[in-house]
Specification:
FAD/NAD(P)-binding domain; Enolase-like, domain 1; 7-stranded mixed sheet; 5-stranded antiparallel sheet; 23 strands; 35% helix
Amino acid sequence: MPVLLPDTPENRILSENVHPTDWINPEPAPCYNLVVIGAGTAGLICAAGAAGLGAKVALIERHLMGGDCLNVGCVPSKGVISASRALHHARNAAAFGLLDGQKTGFDFGTAMERMRKLRANISHHDSARRFRDELGVDVFIGEGRFSGPDSVAVDGKTLRFKKTAICSGARAAAPPIPGLAEAGYLTNETVFSLTELPPRLAVIGAGPIGCELAQAFSRFGSKVTLIELGPHILGREDRAAAEILQNRLINESIDLQLGVTILRVEKQGNIRVILLERDGQQIEIVADEILVGVGRAPNIEGLGLEAAGVRSDRNGVTVNDRLQTSNPNIYAAGDICSPYKFTHTADAQARILLANALFMGRQKVSDLVIPWCTYTDPEIAHVGMYERDAQEKGIEATTLTIPLSQVDRAVLDGETEGFARVHLRKGTDRILGATIVARHAGEMINEFSLAITNNLGLGAIARTIHPYPTQAEVIKKLADTYNRTRLTPLVKKLLSGWLKWQRN
């Protein structure tokens, strides 16, 4: 039985939903249309979708229903980020008339309790009992392992299948830093169990997870050091976008240690000492806790993939563009096989898997348009190609950018730090990709995702009325800017001549 820490009423509710202590596995059906291994986002969508379409479905989970997203990922992290934003707003609202905001008190334990309560409330949707009683899925709690090309063993029982979906996900990975394991460290799988705020927190890895939690804990009051081997934070993002966030983190007193080599970690009593090197100079960082956020490792161990004839490598289960493995009756979706380790990607892939595995579909993962967002403040959201991607593919692109300082609502909200940027195929309004930096960029990027998915050009956005005043109006301004580029000197001369003729 997994232990959810701390042992609180909220976590006991969560545990009873996602790994019930009194759960009795059902007797297997003679044969299943679909056996799903793993009850994270991809697995839950596969199981619920197949059952809703009339399939006989078995769902196997060895740990916690809901997977990373519910238990140690999106849900708790956004709960923590929401609390840190509220505190930051309160303490920095003098311009809005709030007096003595810097004296606003804060209790870390209360913020974490709120997060655990909300997570427990949400967990019913992913619960074992809901999937059994409401959706008609045979839920098995235990280790699922292939016993042959058409069978899975769990809890001493054999489940025979026509098709299987491997959705076992991934876990936090740690770099091979001398002394790190001995000193002890947190990952996204343990940081949300904290009940006391670390006075000093070192975060290794300035990717999305590292940046999000570094900013959140700094706003709570931790003295945060963010350590990154590369020269910039968010190395894969649009450089100008990442630079805005980098400057924000510096302004919020986060100590950025960029372009360093981590030599070793030492534990001295209750503290950790991290020894860094940059340009031949050694740097010593002292921390009470270390948070590691440097990547994910696929959960392929113990699945018995060889018995099923399923190939895998260090990146996970190997699949083709239709999510089919080397065993034509076995498919995979989500973090176990995808380089895009997002909840919404797992959801989309699960839907493709259902169509292809159960209904002889030919849907392709390569057709997906996948947006993503880093939930810092401001947020950085992106979809499609970056300018460098277009260059690598030999596509000539035109890039248009509108700063939020030109958007009335952003000015009124005091949120002018950011921009919207779109890359168009040169000479057309076809959208290759887009980046938005704004307080709610993750909400705003959807308009570009919709346009790219449905082959709508920027002209279609120009024809769409956007309510005023909103920050999303920045997208309309981009479209208007594109329309102005079409007003060439020749076109302007012709229009001017026509209007002059009308005056006669």
